[in-house]
Amino acid sequence: MAEKFHTELKELKKETVAMALLGRSMLRDAVDALVRQDEDLAASVVAKKEQIHALEVDLEEHCYRLIALYQPMAKDMRVIVCTLKVITASVRIGRYGKVIANIVKEIAEKPHISHMMSIPHMAELVIDMIDDSIKAYETDSLDIIADFSARDDTIDALRHSTFREGITHMMEDPRTITRCTHYIMVARYLERCGDHACKIAENVHYMHTGERIEIH
Amino acid sequence: MTENCIISTTDLNLWYQDKHALQSVSMKIPQNKVTALIGPSGCGKSTLLRCFNRLNDLIDHVKITGAITLDQRDIHAPETDVVMLRKKVGMVFQKPNPFPKSIWENVAYGPRVHGIQDKADLDRIVEQSLRHAALWNEVKDRLNDSALGLSGGQQQRLCIARTLAVEPEVILMDEPCSALDPIATAKIENLIEMLKEEYTVIIVTHNMQQAARVSDYTGFMYLGKLIECGKTGQIFEHPAEELTENYITGRFG
User: Fold this and answer.
1) Which of A9, B47, B115, B186 is the most exposed place for a label (fewest CB within 10 A)?
2) Are A74 and B238 a contacting pair at CB < 8 A?
3) Interface-testing mutation among A9, A75, A205, with chain B (most B C-beta atoms within 10 A)
4) Contacts 24+ apart (CB under 8 A), B236-241
């Protein structure tokens, strides 16, 4: 019975990694669509909303079924708890991708201001954090998430700088208000995605050690 | 462990002839708490339980070293009265074992052995014990019926009532639910929860979910050794020892 359970648990983890990568790709594609002002790519991100939602329901049910049937304990229990958190974080990341993709058509008609300030760089850093958090979950390794606190500080600083720069542009030229407001919102969404990567990292730490930490 | 401890073992070793069944077990049993002992078959958990009221004395060729104290008194000291020890430390076994007598006589048996003869006193003790064992309402109208006519779960609660009748401090339970169906098991588990207000309960169980449900502290034993003992939540959420982790997640045993 234990063997059957552990096979199912491995399968659950594999499917959760695939779902997390879908959420990550939605964010990646949304940022690319925004940078390149590619409305088709943005539409493809929006279209994935149903898919990620269906996966969320499926995987959560898988977790509940394993809890009901096997009453897992210790590390097995922690893996399932962590998995539920990874599922939620991945859906949120995917949804932010969708929200950013929806902005693409709103500001597609005019060129970007100042290369969107810090947003492309910020997006790279956030997506790296998401990649590392998924890898840590998949491989049960804590090394790659050890510096998340410092990386999260950098993301926060970049969001703040985007905010200030955006305000400056808007004061100088009110015709930029729509675009700059969207940039400020995108920076906020990216920062939230970084926070979700931190949440995944915190839960991977709990899964691995049984101890709770807070990354902020 | 900050709780008051009622039983404590120090470097306890037990041999059944050549078999070293308990190896240097040191543990503290907190008062008015439920402590569960878990571990694979043959790990020594029942042997340890039987040490607490010296039931192993009844087995030939048993050698015990180390100390066990109850209320800070050595239970192996020459002045210890074993009958009084077993009055203080009662036991409930795996299979319900009522005497082939009436329900009333089963419960009154112990107090009678300890010298209570007055019928009114005995009636009071029988009612109180059956109430504490959550059996009174089911049997109050047929106290003179044979105990063997009760269901398995009722028989087990009768055995608990019989143990309570002599006012013990500690109740040892060796797999008390393994012969019972889930409903009877749930009743015993609820009862254990109530009993700890007045008694200290030590339970041996193969059912880890049961240990997790009913106990405050859990000790994991393996091959005669106490591997880890701690708060139940901690043991089942993040045990300190890998061996414990592997056992409770079903990787062996």
Assistant:
1) B115
2) yes
3) A75
4) B236/A73, B236/A74, B236/A77, B236/B208, B236/B212, B237/A73, B237/A74, B237/A77, B237/A78, B237/A210, B238/A74, B238/A75, B238/A78, B238/A209, B238/A210, B238/A211, B239/A74
Q: In the beta sheet, which residues pair with residue B143?
A: none
B249–A75 CB contact, under 8 Å: yes
Mean pLDDT of the region B63-89: 95
Does B250 contact A5 at a Cβ distance shorter than 8 Å? yes
Q: Is A77 on the interface with B (CB under 8 A)?
A: yes
0.90 exceeded by pTM? no
Nearest to B150 by CA among B185, B109, B99: B99
Tell whether B250 lies on the interface with A, counting CB pairs under 8 A: yes
Chain A residues within an 8 Å CB radius of B228: none
- Nearest CA to A196 out of A36, A72, A26 is that of A26
CA atoms within 13 A of residue A84's CA, in its CB half-sphere: 14
Q: What are phi and psi of A137, to 5 degrees?
A: -65, -45
Angle at which helix A2-36 crosses helix A74-106, to 10 degrees, equals: 20
Question: Which chain A residue lies closest to B210 (C-alpha atoms)?
Answer: A71
Is residue A61 classed exposed, middle or buried when 0-12, 13-18 and 19+ CB atoms within 10 A define those classes? exposed
Main-chain dihedrals φ then ψ at residue B24, nearest 5 degrees: 50, 55
Q: What is the pLDDT of residues B132-159, one digit of tens each?
A: 999 999 999 999 999 999 999 999 999 9
Residues of A within 8 A of B238 (CB-CB) are: 74-75, 78, 209-211
Cα–Cα–Cα angle for A112, A116, A117, nearest 5°?
140
B212 in A contact zone (CB under 8 Å):
yes
- How confident is the model over A120-149, as pLDDT tens digits? 999 999 999 999 999 999 999 999 999 999
A72 to chain B, minimum CA–CA distance in Å? 7
Question: Best residue in B218, B249, B251, B252 to probe A by mutation, most A CBs within 10 Å?
Answer: B249
Mean pLDDT over each residue of chain A, to the nearest integer:
95
A77 contacts B236? CB cut-off 8 A: yes
Q: Would you tell me which residues 197-216 of chain A have a C-beta closer than 8 angstroms to some C-beta of chain B?
A: 209-211
Inter-CA distances, A110 with A33, A34, A168, Å: 14, 12, 19
